[in-house]
Automatic annotation (TrEMBL):
InterPro entries: TIR_dom (IPR000157), Toll_tir_struct_dom_sf (IPR035897)
Protein name per its UniProtKB record: TIR domain-containing protein
NAD in keyword set: yes
Location of the TIR domain: 4-132
Species of origin: Brassica oleracea var. oleracea
Pfam families, alphabetized: TIR
Tree of life domain: Eukaryota
One GO term of the biological process aspect: signal transduction
Keyword Nucleotidyltransferase assigned: no
SMART domains the UniProt entry points to: TIR
Record PROSITE patterns: TIR (PS50104)
Keywords for the protein's UniProt record, in alphabetical order: NAD
Length: 132
């Protein structure tokens, strides 16, 4: 893991949480003086590599799972990067926003690329069946 710049990286589907929930969460982080990263700190249209670097520069990745989360390739890429950096000490904390653990239970990531990735979201985030 490189040098840490942020305590928390916020991984979310903007369409689901940007208005309301995210504003409340950011307000709370600011009041508690917690250094966080959220995507609007970059210029619109920046490449995904910047976001992936910010994940590596964070101690915690807060994954806000919401109804349309899995429709976003960017969200999926961020989760995959968070899973890679977990071995280097990054913690992943799932937050369930307008979805239950049972809703997320069947979500899978299938990613084409250098190698195909098939990942069951709940198992990879460390949720055990007794949690749902």
């Amino acid at each position: 893991m490189g040098q840490l710049k942020y305590l928390v990286f916020l991984c979310f589907r903007g369409e689901d949480v940007r208005v309301g929930f995210l504003s409340y969460l950011i307000g709370t982080l600011k009041r508690k003086s917690i250094k966080y990263y959220v995507d609007y700190e970059e210029t619109r249209g920046e490449v995904m590599e910047i976001f992936l670097r910010r994940i590596a520069e964070s101690r915690i990745v807060l994954v806000i799972l919401s109804p349309k989360f899995m429709e976003s390739d960017w969200c999926i890429d961020e989760v995959l990067k968070a899973l890679e950096t977990r071995e280097a000490g990054t913690s992943i904390i799932p937050v369930f926003y307008k979805v239950s653990v049972a809703d997320v239970k069947g979500w899978n990531i299938v990613k084409q690329g250098d190698r195909d990735k098939f990942i069951n979201v709940t198992k990879r985030l460390g949720l055990r069946s007794k949690d749902y």
